[in-house]
Amino acid sequence: KVYVIHWVSVDRHASTEEAYKDGRSRLKRLLSKVYNANVPKLSPGFVKLHTRQFGTPLNKSTMTSDEYKSAVMQAKEHILAGNIFQIVLSQRFERRTYATPFEVYRALRIVNPSPYMAYVQARGCILVASSPEILTKVEKVCRPIYCY
Question: What InterPro entries does the annotation carry (predicted)?
Answer without folding.
Answer: ADC_synthase, Anth_synth_I-like, Chorismate_C
